[in-house]
Structures are given as C-alpha cells and as structure tokens.
Description:
- By secondary structure, this protein is mainly beta.
- It folds into two domains: 117 residues, Immunoglobulin-like; 132 residues, no CATH class.
- The chain has one helix and 21 strands.
- The protein is elongated, with a radius of gyration of 27 Å.
- The N terminus and C terminus are likely disordered.
Amino acid sequence: MQLRGFAVVYVSMKLRWAVACLGLIAGSAAGQIQVELKFPRLQYIAYEPVVANITITNLAGRDVDLRDNGSQAWFGFEVTGSEGQPIPQISKVSTEALSVGAGQRVTRKVNLTPMYGVHDFGTYRVRAHIYFGDLNKFFYSQTKVFEVTDARPIWQKTVGVPEDGGAGGNARTYSLMTNRFPDHTSLYVRVEDKDSGIVYATYSLGQMIAFDSPQAEFDNSNQLHVLYCAAPRMWSYARVGLNGELVSRASFAETKNRPRLVHAADGVIKVAGGMMDTPVTQTARATAPKLSARPPDAPKDD
C-alpha cells in the first residue's frame, strides 16, 4: 500500500511538472510578438484624426516577416462603440510586408478616422492585432478607450468655390470651434461641404487664450485667414485652404500695436501691427482624407 501510494504521488508530481512545462512553452509562444496600442489622449473632436500608436516587439528569438496571407491582412483593429456594437471597417489600410529583426521594436502611427466610422459622439474601444503567418496565430494588444465629442462653435461662414480654386463642389463651410482640455483650450478649424456631407478636415490650430476671440477673414480666393491670441502678448496666424489644408502659419509678438488682419487693395490678407516672432512658413500638411477618399498609406516607422 505504501509503494502504491508513493507511485500515485510520483505520477501526480510528474503530471504537474509536465503541465507546468506545457504552460511555459505556451507562454513563450504567446509572447513571441508583443503588440502595444496607445493614443496620445483620451478625447477627440468629431472628424479629427484619431492617430493610434502601435508598437510591435519581436520576441521570437529570430527575424520575422509579417505579411498578408491571402485575404488575411497581417495588421488590423477591432473597434466597438459605446454599446459594445462592432464598428465596421469602411476602408482598408495598405499593409505592405514588414520585417522585424530579433529583439527589435517598431512603432507605427495609423489614423483610424478614414478607416472606421468613429466620428459619431460616444466612447470607442480599440484593440490592435498582428497576424503571424508562420504560426498561423494572432497576437493582440490590450484594449484602449477614447471618446469622441464636439467642440463649442464660435464662428462659421459659407463661401463659394472659385472656378480656378482647384477644388470640387460649389461651396465650403468654414467653422472655428474651441475645446477645453484640463490644462488648456484649443482652437479648431473644420472645412466641409454641407451639401454633399463631406468633411474635408477637422484639426487643432493650437492653444489659445479663451477670453480673446479670434479674427477670421477671407482673401480673394476664399481661403480662410485666422489670427488668435495663443499666449499673453503672443499671437498665432494660420491660412487654411478650400480642402482644409493648412497652407501657412506664423507667430507674432504684441508690441505697441496689437496684431490684426487687414485687407490689401488687391484682396490679399496681411497681418498689421506687432512683430513677427516666427516667419510665415508654407506648411506641407496633408489634408485629412474625407470618408469617401482612399485609405491612408501604410503606417510609417517612428
């Protein structure tokens, strides 16, 4: 009886050891590719680019190639709305193959706004996944949450589209809005065609002092010029095109005269008063894709 009892204990210990080893092996396999998902902040304005930062860490002990397998893309997201409903993907991101060396970490940025219908107000939950074809296995990030709300409108005007303006449609509606964050207030601009329902762009022009209203003027090509107080005795200037592109911007320091926008005789808008602190720069900012536009290019490495 004692020998039989010893045999039972011995077998039981071996089973536990085997299970523990299997657990270690499974844990090792599950951790071969680590996926991290982060958002720069928790709150976004409707139609503003919601940029997800994705970090992929190769823990496989060898170089790995991430590539599509037939119709299965190697990279994607799972997005759900406030009530747990799945948010369908409305356009695909280009998923070119990616090679990650052993032990390497790659960070990429992906704009979710043109890919998913995340412009309605509410809370969204997002989980990123990587498909590793060599193991026929998915690796998932933790679920992250962000909220979509709308800013407070402070100014809006609709203008026509000049025939030589290089833009489609007959009219554009420009809106200026403010949103109060815990430590600052941001000034937003939105450009849309209300007749077709297309929102060309929504983005922050920068931090502003809330008690000072911005000045907005149109030039002879119906581009919007905005001058606003960004800090005590500091003013920011921005010019926004018909398709929402940020054409140029500059900073001015207040001197004896407060900076202001003035119309020149030829219809050009100029900043009078103050002293230029940062020269006017032509901005190569890409217009945020409208919902019907083609998807953005593959996310770029940091």
